[in-house]
Amino acid sequence: MDSRQLEYFVAVAEELSFTRAAQRLFTVQSTVSAAIRALETDLRVTLFDRSTRRVTLSTAGAALLPEAKAALEALDRARAVVEEASTGLRGNLRIGTMTRLGLVDLAELLGAFHLKYPLVDVQVTTSPTGSSGLADDVRHGRLDVALLGLPPSELSGLDVRELAAVPFAVLVPPSHRLAGAASVALEDLAGERFVDMLRGFGNRRMVDQAFERAGIPRQVQVEVPDLSEVPEYVRAGLGIAVVPDISPSVAGVVHLPLARPALAWTLSVATIAGRTPSRAVVALQELFADAVRPGYF
């Protein structure tokens, strides 16, 4: 048994697919299959129940998984301590973020991180399903850390540090019946057409849940992948929006406080729960502490 075999085993166990595990590890499926067979031979057990349609963990495989993860984490920590003592902090850091997140200047932050830790290989990605997809990637080990905008009820399995909480606002065109209101309640929006983010994005999920709790049907007329695009569609008269109040002011769009319910969108940095973060992740988290742009909300 060696660390490479354990790494391949954990990848297959988390993906429940030899093909996806090979893609995650940047290798070919035959290499992963050979490593798993060698590990099963060494341990004299079957780790996976295989069929033509699915792969599942056997009882022995389920027992091995937490121990394999712990062993790999211990090896990573030992390697990091030795390498840092001799050459400085190094390793790989996989970061997930939302598209065009103006609240945090991630490029500047990662630039400062690279200057301080040039031997750490940083990879940055987004998810087509927003914060929900990023959270799932962290839970399954595909990301080391991610910036999320999800409510607490959807952060299970994650260790989370809150960076900022932003109130929601209602965006309407100047000609709208509510444009002169001091504030707006959710029931005032019954019967309206809406512009919103795609399903899976944290702020969209919060608004959908708020309307469901209030028993108010909602028709989303326009869905966009980027929060910065929402005001443009509101200005064009294609609907109103309920979004975190972090978008820059746009001519032809009125921002109204949402008074009832008092919704707040939370920006958090998340890592997987129950696992000691690498030294590179800890170093990055320290920079996130002061990452929110002042005066942004």
TrEMBL record:
GO molecular function terms noted in the UniProt entry? DNA binding; DNA-binding transcription factor activity
Q: Name one GO cellular component term.
A: cytosol
Residues passing through the membrane, by range: none
- Keyword terms: DNA-binding, Transcription, Transcription regulation
User: Which domain of life does the UniProt lineage start with?
Assistant: Bacteria
Q: Which Pfam families match?
A: HTH_1 (PF00126), LysR_substrate (PF03466)
Q: Which residues form the HTH lysR-type domain?
A: 1-58
The record's InterPro entries line, in alphabetical order, gives: HTH-type_LysR_regulators, LysR_HTH_N, LysR_subst-bd, WH-like_DNA-bd_sf, WH_DNA-bd_sf
For this chain, the family text in UniProt reads: Belongs to the LysR transcriptional regulatory family.
Instruction: Report the protein name in the record.
Output: LysR family transcriptional regulator
Question: Which species is this UniProt entry from?
Answer: Kribbella antibiotica
